[in-house]
Amino acid sequence: MSETTRLKSTVYVGGLDQAVTIHTLAEAFIPFGEIADITLPKPDIPSSGELHRGFGYVEFELAQDAKEAIDNMDGSELYGRTIKVAAAKPQKDSNEGLGSKTAIWEQEGYLAKYAVSEEDRLAAEQAKMAADSRPQDPMQGLEELDVAGPKPE
């Protein structure tokens, strides 16, 4: 099964109570079609006493079954809590965008979009050096400071 087909047949189930298990999700979603896989992500800190992070993924054999599950289960109640059921989104690449451990200007996409050509960069540096090399008049900007009081308009 291709990754896009697999993604279309997977639903996100959020707002789960800690009492919910893989078996519970299987029983809740089996009326909508054959289930290929169920995942309940573990918490980041295993010693927190939580069994899962409060959400899970149910993968169906057919994308149509996933759509039926979303239509029928979104906003329903499971173990006294209203659950959110939606189409699963692809996992973000940890090397791109927010949450990345790489500076944005070091990422390939940024350089391709915002890179300046070498000759433009050299021209800007030469213009800055030319401006810096001119002798500055120490009296520049001090005109009319010898007159006391407010400036006439």
Automatic annotation (TrEMBL):
GO terms for molecular function: RNA binding. The keyword RNA-binding applies. SUPFAM superfamilies: RNA-binding domain, RBD. Keywords: RNA-binding. The keyword Ribosomal protein does not apply. It comes from the Eukaryota. InterPro entries: Nucleotide-bd_a/b_plait_sf, PPIE_RRM, RBD_domain_sf, RRM_dom. Residues 125-153 are annotated as: Disordered. Residues 9-90 form the RRM domain. PANTHER family: ATPASE E1 (PTHR48037), RRM DOMAIN-CONTAINING PROTEIN (PTHR48037:SF1). This is RRM domain-containing protein.
